[in-house]
Amino acid sequence: MAVAHEDILDFPLDRVPDATEFIEAAMHWHFSPQTGSPYWLERAKTLDFDPIRDVHTFDDLRLFPNVVDEFRNVPFEDLIPKGYGDTATVIGVYESGGTTGSPKRLPFLEEWMARSESWQEGHMDARGHRRGINWLGVVPTGPHMFGSWTRRMALRRGGVPYFVDLDPRWVKRCIADGRADEADRYAEHLVAQARDVLETQTIGYLVTTPPLLERLVRDDHTAKLINDKVEVVMWGGAHMDADTRHLLRTEVLPDVDLWGNYGSTMILSGTVERAGLSDEDLCTFDTFSPHVTFAVIDPDTGDRVAYGERGQVVMNHVSKAMLLPNNLERDTAIRVEAPSGHVGDSVADVAPVATFDDKPVIEGVY
Fold it and tell me: What does the DSSP assignment read for 69-89?
């Protein structure tokens, strides 16, 4: 008896299907008139290949053009597969950071978010992160996924979410306009709010960005608060260099489980820092394979670099909720062999490119 394509895409997390079977199911789902989204059904008419006939493996995803820039203007309704009928629950339309132009927008379905969160929870449990503790998110909310994810994860794990809201685009604009002093004052404003929560409330899980974490721990009193009260610090949204990570883990926050999450709106998810890394190891991220996969390439040739070499990161998202293949991201990384059974590459020592689409990349606080 044949298995329905949507059943293959909804596989139990402990029983990953064959990679070719998975990709073929995704092509049938996203490019069949009855189930595909209006966007992909229309976009398929412009392709010089037939996704159902010609795409069978993850390497075949290279056939697709990089279409993510089109999502600056596509109405979110056009990105929802018809196969959901009236059962799709959109929890929000989230945006990219707008680092290199106007933001790209994607609808996030409850079904996908719950699936991704379950996967990430499994890694938290494996690391011994306790449930029932309160979370503080010093992260962007508003149109950004990071804040929504933090709130949902805190509640899923039996805690209460606290927030210090921030507008990363304002910081980036200040920096781009040469108003570094204004960006600095804004960051200190955020740090003061976070310090107040840490002083007065019971916080066990802190989620923030590397630039803001560095500012928080510059103050000895705040660093002691985090060491004494916080069990886990999860960083993401911006990059952390190897020297800073080593210093935080060994000297500044030795009593805290510091771990990273490298993600993107364009993969509708994050990746998790590999467990068991030493203080001297480069921070390595593993993906939610086969839904999220990376390739580390030479941008001039499109070929993968050798393991241990640095290249630019290409991201793919393949799920029932969304198809976003062959997206050349604004990050470089060292190519690392993925865990057994995973498709694609893992990445280490992620860093931003200096320019992307001929525009300077400004991270600011996010």
Answer: GGGGTS-GGGGS-GGGTT---
pLDDT, one tens digit for every residue, the chain (366 residues): 345 777 899 999 999 999 999 999 999 999 999 999 999 999 999 999 999 999 999 999 999 999 999 999 999 999 999 999 999 999 999 998 766 678 899 999 999 999 999 999 999 999 999 999 999 999 988 898 999 999 999 999 999 999 998 888 888 888 889 998 998 899 999 999 999 999 999 999 999 999 999 999 998 999 999 999 999 999 998 899 999 999 999 999 999 999 999 989 999 999 999 999 988 899 999 999 999 999 999 999 999 999 999 999 999 999 999 999 999 998 999 999 999 999 999 999 999 887 666 666 666 566
Contacts of 216 (CB under 8 A, 6+ apart): 138, 191, 194, 195, 208, 222, 223, 226
Structure-block tokens of residue 77: 């309704």
Is-contact 147 216, C-beta < 8 A?
no
Is residue 118 within 8 A of residue 12, CB to CB? The reply is: no
Residues paired with residue 92 on neighbouring β-strands, in sequence order? 108
Cα 326 versus chain centre, distance: 16
Is pTM beyond 0.90? Reply is yes
Residue with tokens 């044949």: 2
Structure-token pair, residue 346 = 């893992």
Cα-only R_g, the chain = 20
**Cα(214)–Cα(252) distance, integer angstroms:** 10
| Rounded Cα gap, residues 347 and 64, in angstroms | 22
